[in-house]
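About this split. The held-out portion is used to measure sequence recovery: a designer receives only the structure tokens and must propose an amino acid at every position. Recovery is the fraction of positions where the proposal matches the reference. Here is one held-out target exactly as it appears in the evaluation file.
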């Protein structure tokens, strides 16, 4: 006899101070002046009742994947609005001293004298991410984990050494700390 599987169901508690609303397939969370939006999967049914977000999904493999992904996204939104996310990068200059500046008008990080290059390297920053320069460290903070992570990745990729031996030329800006991990 075939066994009937029940649907997956999960309730996520919404902390005080966070207001949530559902506009068609977009979940909107607000806390004071901060706002996060997330497009939800059509495979997962989402309801907001009694200060809880209720997720419901089928039991097929793809449904389970989407269910877990949506659950993680919603938890990251809540954590971002309550605590925020922080990335830390370290400036490593072995051969030539690098200088960093923030060009707020163009929303770019300007890296001067990278490996003795005459031309400055300009790295696009993501809107909604606060950036601080402290000597040899760059700190990024945001409510949205994806924006903070993308900004950190852009900075790391923008100082990539090309056409040289990476064992000798170890210059660059590297992620040393991100939410849940430390690399030192």
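Reference sequence for scoring:
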């Amino acid at each position: 006899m075939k066994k009937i599987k029940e649907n997956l169901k999960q309730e996520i508690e919404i902390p005080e101070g966070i207001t949530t609303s559902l506009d068609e397939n977009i979940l909107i969370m607000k806390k004071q002046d901060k706002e996060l939006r997330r497009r939800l999967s059509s495979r997962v049914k989402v309801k907001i009742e009694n200060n809880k977000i209720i997720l419901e999904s089928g039991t097929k493999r793809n449904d389970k994947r989407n269910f877990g992904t949506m659950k993680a996204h919603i938890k990251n939104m809540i954590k971002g609005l309550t605590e925020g996310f922080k990335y830390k990068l370290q400036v490593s200059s072995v051969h030539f001293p690098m200088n960093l500046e923030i060009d707020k008008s163009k929303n770019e990080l300007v890296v001067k004298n990278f490996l003795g290059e005459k031309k400055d390297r300009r790295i696009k920053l993501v809107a909604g991410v606060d950036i601080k320069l402290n000597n040899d460290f760059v700190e990024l903070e945001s409510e949205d984990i994806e924006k903070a992570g993308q900004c950190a990745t852009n900075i790391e990729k923008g100082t990539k050494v090309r056409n040289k031996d990476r064992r000798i030329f170890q210059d660059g800006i590297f992620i040393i700390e991100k939410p849940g991990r430390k690399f030192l």
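Annotator remark: DSSP finds two helices and 14 strands in the chain.
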